[in-house]
Amino acid sequence: MVFDLRRCIGCNACVVACKQENSLPDGVFFTRTLSQEYGVFPNVNRVYIPTLCNHCEDAPCQKVCPSGATYTRDDGIVMVDGEKCIGCNSCAVACPYDQRSVMTKESFEDGLYADGNLTPFEEQGYTRFTPGTVTKCDFCSERVDAGLDPACVATCPTDARIFGDLDDPQSKARQLIDERGGKPPLPEKNTKPKVFYVS
Amino acid sequence: MSSQEPIQNSLKPGKWIRSTCKMCLHSCGSMIHVTDAGIINKIEGDPTNPSNNGKLCPKGNSAIMRHYDPNRFTQPLKRTNPEKGPGIDPKWEPISWDEAFDLTARELKKSIDEDPRKLLPSIEDFQKFNIWNWPLAFGNQNSFQSGGTMCGGAYHPVNGIVHSAFAVANDVKHCNYWINDGTGDGFSSHLHAAAQSNWVAKARIDRGMRCVTIEPRLSTSAAKSEEWIPIRPATDRHFALSLCHVMVKEGLCDYAFLRKDTNAPYLVGADGYFVRNAEDKIYVWDSVDEEAKLWDDPGIKKIALEGIYEVNGNECKPAFQRFVDILDDCSPEETEKVTTVPAETTWRIAREFAEAATIGATIDIEGRTLPLRPAGYNYYRGAQGHKHGFQTNHAFKMVNFMVGNIDTPGGLMGVTLDDQWVDRSHVEPGENGMMLPQPHQLGPLPPFAFPPTTHHLLNYFPVGLHPPHLNLEVFLNREKYGVDFVPDVMVICHSNPLWAIQGPRHKWLEFMRSMRFIVVSDIIPTETTLWADVILPSHDALESWNMTMIEPPHTEGMCLRQPATEPLHNTKSEEEIFYELSERMGILEGYNAVINIVSGFEHKPELMLELDKKYTDKEIARRKGLLWNDKDIDWYAERGHAVTERRTDKWYRPWEGMRLHFYIEDMVKERDQLKANMEEADVPFRNDWCWDDYQPLPTAVLDPVHEEPAEYDLYGIFYKDIQLNFGESLSNPWIKDIVYRDPVHIALILNPKTAAAQGLEQRDIVKVESPNGFLFGRIGTSEGMHPDTLGVSNALSRTKTSHKGVAHAGGHFNDLLPYDLKNTDAVTGQPETVCKVKLTKLDDWPEGLKDGKSVYDLVDKLQETGGGGVH
Question: How far is the CA of A91 from the CAs of A7, A31, A50, A79, B757, in angstroms?
Fold first, then answer.
């Protein structure tokens, strides 16, 4: 995945599309768009920064997982098997990017309308989660398997999220990284992220 | 669930239905996924729709939460508690539809039988003009809806005069230099936000289009532009005039365009009227033969734009010269005193803009050789929403006139609202070679009458859009305005006027209390539904039919809305509701006659509704589709839309051979006609009317907001972003989850230096007071705010509703705004939407905001949860 910071307008359509696609409870995000203001008036600007799981090649979360719940698919997507996860939270602590969420029992019980009831949308969606386990972005792996872009990529109004095979020199993602000097997040952590930013 | 079955919603067994988004008033194509169990679990953009290309904004992405909102009205309701007001439980009692219709029709009929003007409508579903125009069925032209003032009260009429179109947008396919003034077009708001963001991003990144944003705050548009020019609020017109000043002084104008395609060379007398002969033909000056000739004289050698001449013994000037005279006082050095924009910046931007416009260049498009002017000055709500709105819009237009980019590849394009049928031209010839000005884009206005026939005085705004705030001015001063009727029933449909119309709340609440009966048709509770006597719950956009085209900025064509599921609740379509009421009120024939006109059915007689019949939402939609392209509903149901890119013959210079209104003589005519009418009718308030507002050319007059008492030492502005576009957003949990984590939407924003000068720090609680009203809030700071300005997000605007998901703020920015004639454009009815404010630091929240349930408590809670985002 490549994020084009020149394109991103911080609209958060990606965030809501992800909530829709993945039935996320209130306050749980597989992707976020942050904003950061810099400079002093009138020479000031704001940058919008999309974030999600970086699907690191040397994933710290996977290394610390005691149950083997976190694993990496052949195509490089880092997954969490909810049935194996014991909810120890080690991965969430180990992730330098703060990209893992513990699914608390309350997050499912309160419901999106915080009235103790679930909407039919939530009822059909929450069955994928096991309360007490940890979860995160999996690049919409089922959509990827079906030949589709992740939900956040598909909806992005400005095409600021570019998904593709980084090993394929013909992929748009790889070309963008090469042409515009893509940078991984927090390179000093040596996690070898599979997410790059171009600006 | 077995591990073999998909867990992602879009892949679960089910079907996709093509439809049209309704989370704002525009019409992006959508695809709705319904599971085999009948649950709507994913909505995506329709990639076959060339408007939004498969994209949706965050609001479009959150429509499911509107559908399944547990606060929805689920059946007709009747109030049992006669006491009304914020926080007072109406004690709803379920009733049958028959009872609800009978009761409502009886109460409405009682009033309109006495006087049709006694009904106040706020019917605001902009995708359904067949509903919007229902009051015309009994000759009622009142309006209590916010559609004019908070939208483009002056913008739309001026677009109608200059482009014969409803809206405008820069031509994204060719523009290389895009100025946004007080608008988020292409970044965060206005026309088809997701669609336009997509197109503008392509232009920015793929073609290197340069963007410049003029605004008091660092908006999304400003942040993404190559340059942000901070400006003092309500001074954008002065900036625009100074750009014109530079272009005129440096000869950077498209003189060929001004001579040939506009009325700029038409001679204007000292009285402001064009100089005409006995046959009403207008003169121009031939600078070679040094004599006046009629505008269409084939013997004209060179048409003069500048100079002072004498025709038939009277001194006159070309219209262009009159504008040059105005510009003499608008140098960047002079306007800097008003705008705070450094003069050197203005000089540079004007030169860059004119250079980017490539005056003289041409482009071949589909067999036509057209001027190529790839620079456009685009603008909207923030820049146009001022007391002198007409002149302000005209000034922005003038920047574009200077470089000859009107409706021209790369320039500022007229965007039609709804073409109705595919071959319909929106342009007609007018008098003396000019295009017919069509300021009334939403239909004709009521003629002059005294006593007024409308409660918001629409009879006196010759090129107006509804000024709903004047309902309050009239309510408080009925005798002064000679209003000889007292509205006592309200019909509210998909509208929240108590939230959306400016003026202090406590006075509006008195207005609401004066109503004998209020009926509301809506989906969810709002500030206004709390006042209803009867609730007529309607289907949402995932349960109903519609066909619409709503001002797409580079595409055209009808978009179908079709139900993805059966209605969840005991609700009805708006069509059924208004037909049932019409039948019971005895106005069915009138209503069908209105729909035949406003939906264009009269254009194809076979589509005309029979006057004594009731029609479904599906049937109305079907006929609109047939009107567009002769395709039946099944064709649309499969495809979802008939959208194509704008046809270039209708899009580029559709007025070829006609002259555009650089000089708007109608301002002088309308002023004099209205004056004469008022004199003749002995209208008592005629001397209070702002006659100076009627200017055929924009001037550098200051808006009265700049002359408020000195104790109000800051300007107050109000803003939205894409998550809050247009109407209802903040009842939606997904929108709340993103908006209330965004630093620009969770506090009243001051520049840090301004905060320090005011003795304020972040999180200080303040009372904000304007000459009109007050609100409470919490201070935040941003370097991205003009030091003269307090910025208030729309996310901090809600007051008490019975929707449990809406967190109330400490008052609404609209409370701070004026509702009087002094602050209303006497041409269009556009009120001032900027105010002057003063801040007082408080030790604690006032009563009512201490209960831990205000929006600021929600913000604090969200800040503590939902991490995830280190980069």
Answer: 32, 17, 21, 12, 47
Cα distances (Å, whole numbers) of residue B47 to A11, A191, B31, B793:
19, 36, 9, 32
Nearest residue to B117 via CA among B578, B536, B461, B446: B446
Please tell me what DSSP assigns to residue B647.
Answer: P
* CA proximity to B263, closest of B655, B653, B696, B662: B662
Report the domain count for chain A: 1
Torsion of CA B306, B308, B311, B313, to 10 degrees: 170
Q: How far apart are CA B173 and CA B554, in angstroms?
A: 9
* Torsion over CA: B577, B581, B582, B584 (sign): positive
Number of domains in chain B: 2
**Which amino acid is residue B154, in one-letter code?**
A
Query: From its phi and psi, is residue A47 left (phi > 0), alpha (psi between -120 and 50) or beta?
Result: beta
Q: B19, B50, B67 — which closes off a domain?
A: B67
Buried b (16+ CB within 10 A) or exposed e, B186-221: bbbbbbbbbbbbbbbbbbbeeeebbbbbbbbbbbbb
Task: List the CATH number of the domain containing B744.
Answer: 2.40.40.20
- Cut 0.95: pTM above it: yes
For B787-830, the pLDDT digits (tens) are 999 999 999 999 888 899 999 899 999 999 999 999 999 999 99
Burial pattern A53-74, b for ≥16 Cβ within 10 A else e, equals bbbbeebbbbebbeeebbeeee
Reading the block at residue B704, the tokens are 């009265």
Q: Does B51 touch chain A (CB under 8 A)?
A: no
CATH number of the domain to which A113 belongs: 3.30.70.20
Q: Is pLDDT at B866 greater than 70 in this prediction?
A: no
* Position B1 confidence tier, pLDDT thresholds 50, 70, 90: very low
Considering only residues 33 to 72 of chain A, which have any Cβ-Cβ distance to chain B shorter than 8 Å? 34-35, 37, 39-42, 44-49, 51
- Domain span at residue A137? 2-198
Check pLDDT > 60 for residue B567.
Answer: yes
Alpha helices in B502-647 (DSSP H): 505-513, 574-585, 588-598, 617-629, 633-639
CA dist B541 and A55 (Å) reads 38
What is the Cα–Cα distance from B720 to B792, expressed in whole angstroms?
9
CATH of residue B40's domain is: 2.20.25.90
Q: Over the stretch B49-75, which tens digit does the pLDDT of each residue have?
A: 999 999 999 999 999 999 999 999 999
Closest Cα partner for B499 from B125, B151, B131, B145? Answer: B145
Say if B831 falls within a structural domain: yes
Q: Which positions in chain B touch A9 (Cβ < 8 Å)?
A: 187-188, 197, 201, 220, 224, 722
End-to-end CA distance of chain A: 14
Residue of A nearest to B185 (CA): A9
Strand partners, A2: A162, A196
Other Cβ atoms less than 10 A from the Cβ of B623: the count is 25
**Domain limits at B61?**
9-67
* φ, ψ dihedrals at B286, nearest 5°: -90, 115
Does residue B43 lie in a domain region? yes
Query: B866: nearest CA in chain A?
Result: A27
Q: Identify the three-state secondary structure at position B650.
A: helix
Q: Do A13 and B57 touch (CB under 8 A)?
A: yes
- Structural contact between residues B697 and B323, judged by C-beta atoms closer than 8 angstroms: yes
Q: Is residue B637 situated within a structural domain?
A: no
Tokens for A47, please give them.
Answer: 């940058």
B156 to chain A nearest CA, in Å?
Answer: 27
Amino acid at B383: A
Structural domain includes residue B41: yes
B791 and chain A in contact, CB less than 8 A:
no
| pLDDT at residue B313 greater than cutoff 60 | yes
